[in-house]
Design goal:
CATH class of the largest domain: Mainly Alpha
CATH topology of the largest domain: AhpD-like
Radius of gyration: 17 Å
InterPro entries: AhpD-like (IPR029032), CMD-like (IPR003779)
Order of helices and strands: HHHHHHH
Number of domains: 2
Strand content: under 5%
Largest sheet: none
Helix content: 55-70%
Protein name: Carboxymuconolactone decarboxylase family protein
Structural class: mainly alpha
Shape: elongated
């Protein structure tokens, strides 16, 4: 149970009810971070607009790399909600979910490409406190992904740090998006 109670549908104002309806249609359930953030409707709307904007704009990197670094960041920060939801998104993209079992030991795994390993090491360095990303990491990633690719990669890792730290601080844990009948939201 989160440290701040969710806003129930019965207590929700019309804008929040609309957000809940859209969330249920899209994900099969209202994501608990949305229901907690609904305690501050202005920030809930700002967050939704931001997430939709990032989703539309982040198209430079392959979806497999985008989802992988976001998932790995969630694992590193032990955000069970993010891991649960991220697994569902990866499954919906038709990506290999089984290889996620080796994400903690990516450097020694043959299930990740060299570029993926570089991106995962960068995600680790960005998630360290303090941040330990190096000039060499950024230069090598720029050589392989281009400037826009490095900016997108950095943005997505930073955004997942935000999500995971928000959820963890407020006690938001996994919601069962990947348990039970495989996914709460049906595959597209």
């Amino acid at each position: 149970m989160p440290r701040i109670p969710v806003v129930t549908t019965a207590r929700a104002k019309p804008l929040v009810k609309l957000a809940y309806r859209i969330s249920r249609r899209r994900f099969g359930a209202v994501p608990e971070p949305v229901a907690v953030t609904a305690n501050h409707p202005g920030l809930m709307v700002a967050g939704a607009r931001h997430e939709l904007g990032v989703g539309k704009a982040a198209k430079v990197l392959p979806v497999s790399l985008r989802e992988l670094v976001v998932y790995a960041t969630a694992v590193r920060l032990a955000c069970s909600w993010c891991v649960d939801f991220g697994t569902m998104l990866i499954k919906h993209e038709g990506l290999d979910v089984d290889r996620l079992k080796e994400v903690r030991d990516y450097a020694a795994s043959d299930r990740y490409t060299e570029v993926e390993k570089l991106a995962l090491a960068y995600a680790d360095a960005m998630t360290d406190t303090p941040v330990t990303a190096t000039d060499e990491q950024v230069a090598e990633l720029e050589r392989r992904l281009g400037r826009a690719g490095v900016v997108e990669l950095t943005y997505l890792i930073a955004l997942e740090n935000h999500r995971a730290r928000f959820n963890s601080a407020l006690g938001i844990v996994d919601q069962g998006f990947t348990s039970g009948e495989a996914c709460r939201a049906p595959l597209p």
